[in-house]
Structures are given as C-alpha cells and as structure tokens.
Write a structure and sequence with these properties.
- The structure holds two protein chains of two kinds.
- Chain A has a three-stranded antiparallel sheet.
- Chain A has helices spanning about 5-20, 30-40, 50-75, 85-90, 95-105, 115-130, 135, 140, 150-155, 165-185, 190-195, 200-215; strands spanning about 185-190, 220, 225-230.
- Chain A is mostly helical.
- In chain A, about 60% of the residues lie in helices and about 5% in strands.
- By secondary structure, chain B is α+β, with helices and mostly antiparallel strands.
- Chain B has two domains: about 5-85; about 95-185, Winged helix-like DNA-binding domain superfamily/Winged helix DNA-binding domain (Arc Repressor Mutant, subunit A, Orthogonal Bundle), CATH 1.10.10.
- Chain B has a four-stranded antiparallel sheet with strand order 1-4-2-3.
- Chain B starts with a helix and ends in a 13-residue tail after the last helix.
- The chains are: A mainly alpha, B alpha+beta.
- Chains A and B meet through α3, α4 and α5 of A and β4, α5, α6, β5 and α9 of B.
Chain lengths: ~250, ~200
C-alpha cells in the first residue's frame, strides 16, 4: 500500500480516538464519509499491519456510532441541559447559593462508625500476637546490621583493591591532591573522594585516609557549616582521629 | 416454632446491621452478600426494611452498573447491585455543615457535578478546574478535586478526564441538582464604590 494511503487510515484512527477520548459531540464525525474512504482503500491492503489499521478504524467507527446513540438518548432524557447554560449559571451564582444547590440534592449515605465487640476482640488478639518492633522484620530482612568500617585489608579482601594497586593508587591520588592543595590551600572532601561509582568513592576515601595518616595532608571539619576540607598537613597540632561515615557511597552523608 | 412475622423481623434487623456496619472500603453491601446472610428472599426483606426506615426519614437505594434499580429488578441485577441506606430528604446547608463540608466545599461539589452532568458525566480535568477557579482560590481547587476523588464523588480516568463517581451516583439527585441550579436567580449586582 502506498505510504499516503496508510497515512490516511492513521489520520482517521487518530481523529476518531480524539473524539472518543473527549466529551465532544460524536456527531461531529462523518461516519459515512470515513466508511466510504476505508471501502475505497480496502482492495489495496496487503500487509498485516495495513489490515490491522483498517480493523482498528472500523472498530473505532462502531464505537462512535454507539456514542452517537448514547448522545441521542441523553439529549432526550430529563438530565439534558445545555452545557453553556450550566456554565453561565455557575458563573452567576454565589458560593452560598451553589452550596444550597448541592445540599438540596444531597442524600448522604447512612453508616455506623462505632467499634463493635467483635472488632475489639480482633484488635486485642492482633495486639497480643504482635511481635516487638525490633523482632518484627528479622524474618524478612535478617538481623539489623550496624555501620561497618573499612580498612585497606578489608578492601583487598573484597577485591576492590590489591596490595600492589593500593600503593600505586596511593601515589596516584596524592599526585592528584597535592597540586590542588598547593593552588587552593584546601579542597572539599566530598568533591575530592567522589568517584564514578560507589566502589570508586569508597576506595578514594580509604586511600585519602591513608594519605592523611601518613601526614601528607590533614582534615579540617567545620561542623557549623557542615563542611569537611582536605588541607595541607598541620604539624604543630596534636593529631586526632576524624570519623567520616559514608552511608550511601555515591552521596555525601556525615 | 417461629412465626413468619418474627422470622421477617429478625431478617430485617440482620439486613440493617449488615448495611450499616462499616466496610473496609466503600459503604453499602452487595446483593449477593445479603443473599448469603439472609437468604434468597432478601429483596422481600429489603422492602420490609424500607417500610420500617421510611418512618425515620431514611430509604434503601439500590445502585447497579446501569444506575438506580428498583427492588423489583431482575434477580441477577440485584445480586450484583450495591445496597445503601440514605437520607430520604435532602439537607439544608446548615444541616449539612457538621458533615465536614464547608460552604466552599459544597459549592465546589455543586460546580463539579453539574458541569460533569451537562457534559454527559465526563469532562477533561482542566475544564472542571477552570470552572472551579471562577469561584475558589487555586490551591483550594486542586485540594478539593483530590478530596472528591478520594471520597468517591468523582473519578479520574487514564485520559485525564473527570468522571462522576460511585458516591455521587448514590448520594446526589442529579435532576434536583440541575433544576435548583437553573432556578438560581442572577447574582445581585454589587454596588460600585465611587472613585
């Protein structure tokens, strides 16, 4: 089938879908004209896709006819009212009047909202069977684990690093850090350790801790500003330990 | 041996209990649930119940897939329909206020439902929002639509249209709604302040 014929069918399908999907008048669709068009194109259909497009167009046209029938029924019913008139009345009415209109046609459902004896017994049984909160999810998620710490040995065991690589990476990371410290005096900790993935971030953080332990750099924590900086080594100060937690390796969290 | 009258009276009480007991999701009870609880002749029991609660200003409303049904409808239709007890007479705004709906909320519901009814029960959400913004602040429009959807007064379909929901079909008399709206006198002109 030539491309333009297929396009014609697809346009019909699209137009019919638009009418079905909205609340517009189904009589805007000229069903006879569309059927004629489909009938003229029918002998040219050869591929399965073309036949399926034709079937879809016919199915949508039958849906339009169904909507037209409903439309006629609705217009003949006592509920039919010109939408424009409704809009005008809404615009012209005060909220108080509109509330009266609703209340005047509202018949609320009656229901009881009271705990019965049976519900109370169910609740007591449920409560008595309920495990304490700390034991409740052990079966599904196992024992809750605390924060773990990494050292170089652990990273080697985890195969994130090998011992030879650790030495190589140490000087590689230091080679990256030193010019930055020489230039700026301090470097944002999180920007520096951030790697391309979680393993890389952990590895960089551990290597940096070795650099700091070796006295080649120092850490400056600004708790009020929630900042951590890597700075040049401060030999005069008493060395102290700084714990930096990486909860989500790809996201800073102290 | 139990008399027919006392048997019916027990069944009527049982039907009332089942219909009023809180449900996990929506209120009301399915016909087949009533059948299981009070027997095949449940529609006769429901008619007896209706006579009893009528004295209290209440009535049983049966809603099937095609809308409201009478207790004399076909057995299969009744089995699949949902049975509710509703107020027979509508309320005034003052009486309706303790239900948790403010004047603005009721006005918003009147606008939404009358607009949807005039559009054969379905209209794009954007059109309804535009109508609501005529009377309510923007934040309240979105808040109200979410609330009406949650309560079942309206539904939102996959194409972004708002559709009249199950609760409106049960609680709202659409004919009265439109009649009252169309009978609204034009708003009195507000006096213009001299400059």
């Amino acid at each position: 089938m030539p491309e333009d014929n297929m396009e014609k069918v697809l346009k019909i399908v699209e137009a019919l879908r638009a009418v079905i999907g909205s609340s517009s008048d189904p009589f805007n669709v000229n069903v006879k004209e569309h059927i004629e068009a489909l009938r003229r194109l029918l002998p040219e259909w050869k591929e399965l896709d073309e036949i399926l497009a034709d079937v879809e167009a016919m199915a949508l046209l039958s849906r339009i006819v169904e909507l037209q029938e409903k439309w006629v029924r609705y217009q003949a019913s006592s509920l039919y009212v010109d939408p424009l008139l409704v809009e005008l009345k809404i615009v012209a009415s005060t909220p108080e009047r509109l509330a009266e209109v609703f209340a005047g046609s509202w018949h609320p459902i009656l229901k009881i909202e009271q705990v019965s004896k049976m519900e109370l017994m169910n609740a007591i049984n449920y409560w008595n069977r309920l495990l304490p909160f700390d034991k409740r999810f052990v079966e599904e998620f196992g024992q809750q684990r605390g924060l773990a710490s990494f050292d170089a040995k652990r990273l080697v065991e985890m195969k994130i690093l090998t011992e030879e690589e650790l030495n190589r990476r140490f000087w590689e990371v230091y080679g990256e850090l030193k010019p930055m410290l020489d230039l700026h005096g301090k470097v944002d900790y999180w920007k520096f350790v951030e790697g391309k993935d979680s393993n890389e971030t952990i590895a960089r953080a551990v290597i940096l801790s070795h650099i700091v332990s070796s006295g080649l750099a120092s850490i400056e924590v600004k708790p009020l500003e929630d900042n951590i900086f890597i700075v040049k080594p401060k030999l005069s100060k008493q060395p102290r330990s700084v714990a930096i937690t990486i909860s989500r390796p790809d996201r800073r969290e102290t | 041996m139990m008399s027919v009258e006392s048997d019916v009276a027990i069944k009527v009480r049982k039907a009332l209990q089942i219909m009023l007991t809180p449900k996990v999701r929506n209120p009301g009870v399915k016909g087949w649930e009533l059948k299981r609880a009070i027997g095949k002749d449940y529609h006769t029991v429901i008619q007896a119940l209706n006579t009893e609660i009528d004295k209290l200003g209440l009535t049983v409303k049966i809603v099937g897939e095609s809308g409201e049904l009478s207790p004399q409808a076909e057995q299969e239709q009744l089995d699949n329909a949902r049975f509710y007890i509703i107020f027979k007479e509508p309320l005034t705004t003052r009486e309706a206020s303790p239900s948790g709906m403010s004047i603005d909320d009721m006005a918003a519901l009147a606008i939404t439902l009358s607009y949807l009814t005039s559009k054969r029960g379905k209209a794009p959400a954007k059109e309804v929002e535009k109508m609501l913004k005529e009377k309510l602040p923007r934040w309240k429009v979105e808040w109200n639509i979410r609330r009406f959807i949650r309560k079942g007064y309206i539904l939102k379909d996959d194409d972004g249209n708002l559709v009249i929901g199950w609760r409106s079909l049960v609680e709202v008399d659409f004919k009265s709604l439109l009649t009252l709206l169309l009978a609204t006198p034009p708003k009195e002109q507000e006096p213009v302040e001299p400059r």
